[in-house]
Amino acid sequence: MRLRLRNFTDLALSLREIGRVVRPGGRIALLEVAQPLAGSCGRATIWFERVVPVLGGALSDRDAYHYLPR
Description:
The chain has helices at about 10-20, 45-60, 60-65. By secondary structure, the chain is mainly α. It has one domain (about 10-65).
């Protein structure tokens, strides 16, 4: 399985650049979400529609994460 994140055209280069600018001992967080698989609804749907926007909003721009479930 190949790791892919949206909005990164070159993931390896992006991660190197993030590593270059984060201070020693610093942390980074990348939150990637996807539509739950059919049949795995239930908790996954609650996670995707409720938790992800709150978690994303706490880490970043709240409005940016509310469009994802739609």
